[in-house]
Amino acid sequence: MKFQTLNYRQGFLRNAIQIQLYGVALSLGAFGVCAWPAQAQNASQNSASAASKEGGDVRTAMKNVEYHLTDRIIVHISTLNGKLTPKPNELVVFDDKQSFAIDVDSANVILSMTALTNDLNDYVFSKPDAPLKKLVTTAKGDELTVKGLLVSKGGIPFESSGTLEVTPDGKIRVHTKKVKALHLPVKGLMDMLGLDTATMLNTKKVEGVSVDKDDLILDPEKILPPPQLRGHLSSIKIENGAIALVFTAQEQKESQKPLANSCSARNYLQFKGGTVRFGKLTMADADLVLMDMEPADPFDFAIDHYKDQLVAGYSKMTQQGGLCVHMPDFNKIPQHGKAQK
Fold first, then answer.
1. Which residue blocks in 201-266 are alpha helix, DSSP H?
2. CA 13 to CA 9: how far, in whole Å?
């Protein structure tokens, strides 16, 4: 009899515990929390799948922006329409310039001689075994002059002058007209000896640069630091001592129509659709405009220091849930102004 009573009590206790656990599971379920491992795994997979669908390309438009690719390499974007394309299965992350490329539908971009000089030294020919070093570029009329040291030939000083044109496949041809070495003309001597730039300059280890006889061929998608600028270059010329590049779409698509500016900004970077992550914030179905607080001059924007500009500015939300971020020029933030000189 005592044994039966003990079994009865144990059974009652076991049932009570099961009922309590079931009640806890129901309570957790009511608050959207899954108590079972298999269900938790499915929820995690569904969440990851949803996040993946939220990602994808982000439409972009830019106007009158001094865009800092690095602290020393700055391009002026007069206008740009296109999209930010993230790496496969990733998001556009402002803190990681390698996470996306800028695919251009149309753009007008200006590269100053200072920016070009810094780009050649800091990026294109930055490797220790690069054939050219200590480069300086200048422009006069429609000619580009490059001075530097021919390291592959013992550090001989050289000077080369030429004109710019676009190749049929959208690359930049620097057509050489004059070459000097040790301050002496050598172009005529090279022609007499049957030599050309290709035999004098090895560019196999320099990404984005090749040689065609006496001409340098530059790939605009590879000669600038990330984020990579991808598009069809249709025109290049020297204007007011700087290089003006024009990108145009090879075929017009409905998705290439310019974005409507929801913040009434004059100088700005705009992002629409897809998912954008900046800092600890992630914006799905993005509707974001980074705009100039002082539009009297171009918007000085530094991707490497955008957080400093965010902290020094302020934000307003639109009725549609978009975000208008008013930011000061990077070169006007006190702790950074001197670094840009």
1. none
2. 6
**Inter-residue contact 101 to 85 (CB < 8 Å):** yes
Rounded Cα–Cα distance for residues 111 and 15 (Å):
77
Residue 260's pLDDT is 83
Task: Give the strand pairing for 229-230 and 184-185.
Answer: unpaired
Cβ neighbours for 74, distance < 8 A, ≥ 6 positions apart: 66, 67, 68, 112, 115
- The residues spanned by each domain of the chain are 2-41, 54-111+249-340, 114-224
- Put the strands of the sheet holding 275-278 in their side by side order: 92-93, 275-278, 281-284
* pLDDT 10s digits, 18-30: 434 333 332 323 3
Q: For the range 17-22, what are the long-range contacts, defined as Cβ-Cβ under 8 Å and sequence gap of 24 or more?
A: none
Q: What is the 3-state secondary structure (H, E, C) of 201-219?
A: CCCCCCCCEEEECCEEEEC
pLDDT digits over 69-122, tens only? 999 999 999 999 999 999 999 999 999 999 999 999 999 999 999 999 999 999
pLDDT value at position 39? 47
Q: Supply 110's token pair.
A: 């200006």
Q: Residue for token digits 């998912």?
A: 275
CA distances from 327 to 120, 123, 265, 299 (A): 30, 28, 11, 9
